Amino acid sequence: MVHMLKDTNHGQADANNGHNESAATDSNPIGTKPQIRYRVEYQDSTTGQVLHSQEGSEPATLRTNSREPPFEEVKIFRIKPWRTGNTTESTSTATDVPVYPGAVPPSRLLRIFSPAIINALQSVVQYYPGQDLTGDVVEVRWPYPILVHHYDELSGFAEECATKDQSLLCERERDAASHIKLLLDYLDADIMDTVRAEKERNRKGFYTFEGFWVGHKPGTTILQSIVEDKNMERLVVHSVTGGIFEYLSTDWSVDYWGMEFDGTYFGRTMRNIGATRKFDGERVLDAGSFLLIGFGEIVACPEEHADLVQQIIEEGKLYWNLLKKQCKFHKGKVRGFPYNEVCLRQFLISTPVLSI
Q1: Do residues 190 and 265 both lie within one domain?
Q2: Any domain includes 291
């Protein structure tokens, strides 16, 4: 029991010192600022069943009269259920606290209840396989990758709702500004300093094992060369697993998809290129590593490859433009026999856009 009380106090200390806006009480009048709730859960290490849980602060009172806060931070301890000669499941009481061995550090997740935050995520997230955004409650495990990767988009969504005529906001947007601000403040206090440092490291051509996921946002295009082939292979990040996402850190594994032509059909194929094993310090993004191109920006690229990356981007734009219906002019020989020479001829390009 001593350990549980100690951890709960720690959760309350975090609320007062780091994540601000917490320590809610039942005396909070309706209309006050939304609060964060902190919870500690002890789960069976084998089944994942919650054996005991305790809140670090009282639920906030929201303008919507809901007893749930916008979100809660859950600290999870994986333990083995207590077993003694005289203790059985039927004789255990609600006050029993499982013994935490202390050998493995706890994990954390955010449990989001706010319809405003969930609606904002569903609005700004275009592509994120592996993260479920359906239902009334959304859970995001530390280091909260989908929230980090859409930090700027969520900030813009909140600002748009804050400046918009309140009478034009739908029910799910009414609390968006305050709830998203609370979420972003929490991320700032918890993880964003580390993320921004990793992004700066990527821009200089380096990366770390712990920050590997930061540059690998799903939907990001990567270029990779292998020893046998000097040509850069174009791939799109589908999902990232392993690494610090796991309860016990493992190798990083990334699934990609790319476009391939087999002589008859041109379509999408899935693949996984090896694994990134754990290492200390920083590594250089060299010719055999990844060059990351985000949505409209180069995320990470050594200076010696900058011209190549820009060339590939221009090739992609050229290909996409060819898929649009447009008029073109041709001067020279025609394709078919007898290959007559034409001075200037107008023709229409109408190529169906491929669905990927």
Answers
A1: no
A2: yes
Could you give the maximum distance between any two Cα atoms of the chain, in Å?
Answer: 99
Does 230 share its domain with 104? no
The model carries a pTM of 0.73
CA 134, chain centre distance (Å)? 15
Beta-bridged to residue 75, according to DSSP, are 40, 108
Which stretches of the chain are DSSP H helices? 2-17, 115-124, 145-149, 151-163, 176-187, 193-203, 212-215, 306-322
Digit-coded pLDDT (tens) for 279-316: 999 988 754 455 565 555 566 665 666 777 778 778 87
pLDDT in tens, 170-191: 989 999 999 999 999 999 999 9
The string of DSSP codes covering 115-140 is: HHHHHHHHHH----TT----SS-EEE
Structural domain that includes position 271: 206-321
Strand locations in the chain (E):
36-44, 50-55, 71-79, 107-112, 138-141, 206-208, 221-226, 229-242, 252-261, 266-272, 282-284, 291-293, 298-300, 326-333, 341-349
pLDDT tens profile 98-110: 555 556 788 999 9
- Total Cβ atoms within 10 A of residue 219: 15
Q: Are residues 212 and 186 in the same domain?
A: no
How many domains would you assign to the chain?
2
- Residue 345 in domain: no
Assess if residue 342 is contained within a domain.
no
